[in-house]
Amino acid sequence: MISFTDAQLNAWLISFVWPLTRILGLLMVAPMFGHRSVPARVKVGLGIGITLVVAPALPPLPDVGLGSWHGLFILIQQFLIGVGIGFVMRIAIAAADMAGEIIGLQMGLGFASFFDPQSAGQTLVLGRFLNMLAVLVFLALNAHLLLIGVLVESFRTLPIGTQPLAAGGFFTLASFGASVFAVGLQLALPLIAILLIVNLALGILTRSAPQLNIFAIGFPITLTVGLVMLVFTLPYFLPQFELMFRQAFEAAGNVIRDLGPQ
User: Across-strand partners of 99?
Assistant: First the structure.
């Protein structure tokens, strides 16, 4: 008859549950993996599969009971680490959303919005379009595999332990979050400049010919110029997205390093 001691059962459980918690935290918020259209059972199944591969190669784990207060503390820590890594990549995708929102408002497409189940709110069509483009670039670069590699590497850089997380990691994450507005504005800046020139030209035309109805001719001209220039500038978005994801991976590494003991 095969029998197990409580210590053996606890060791098997913590070697599986703690890394699974970190992995599921990332899969819950990471781009593509964390989308609401992905069923929860798929996320859990993928997390279990990654855990079964990663668990045998983990460094020695602390001898702490899984159901104790220390075990619960470690469980929360692992969840926060996974969410932090995934949130960095989500910020990179949010920059593309921000650029689409700015461009759409400048083109006069503020009314062209629909309900986005991912953000649970109204999203402009152009914002959703650039979001999908950024996700396609994310997949084309195999960034989803690189993200899993960063997660696996985090178990070596920031091993599972009883020490509390350093506040510097959360500050690094917040600092990178501020880049959403800067990167989004940089992506939208060429179209903003072009549409600004168009609006200035329409203003001069209105002053020189007051009988023209600027509301009747301004919107079609602004919309047409914006769409045409968007088509011409789309190829230049791709290297910017690649640079943005590279910076996001560097930020994820900095977050992992700064969360560890100093």
Answer: none
